[in-house]
Amino acid sequence: MEEKVKKLCGYIFAALVVVGLVLVIVGMCIDIITITASVLGVTVSESYGLFHDMWSAPGAPSTTFLLIAFIVAIAGAAVLLVDAILRVFLGKDIKIVRMLGTAVAFVGAVLILVAGLMLVSECNDIGKGFSAGAGVWLGFIGGLVAAVGGGLPLLKAFN
To answer: Can you give the pTM of this predicted structure?
Structure first.
């Protein structure tokens, strides 16, 4: 019976990694920065994604750090996904790959949050009303979910 529970936990942790990877990819593709302005009592909100034309304008804040942060989080989650496939479906337990993937996914999540908030700060230096969009938060949460899903099998309770 205990082997079935371990297998079920393996499926759940693999699903967490997949959910985390999807959240990071979706976060990268949706709005990163939101600007809200109030004109004559009417509030207008506009969102800009990571790949929006606004960033190529001269003098626009750099998004390179944020793009690198998303790539790091995606790489970590992809390593954890490969590890989950090897562990759950093929029975190969390579802990060093899991540790590396967990660390990279966690660092990527933190970098997404830091880079997103830095970008908001840079934009607010130009004009007020900028805030982090859903993409920053989804990327951060996705990286954390992938790191948790990949890191939990390292605990003795799940070995």
So the answer is: 0.86
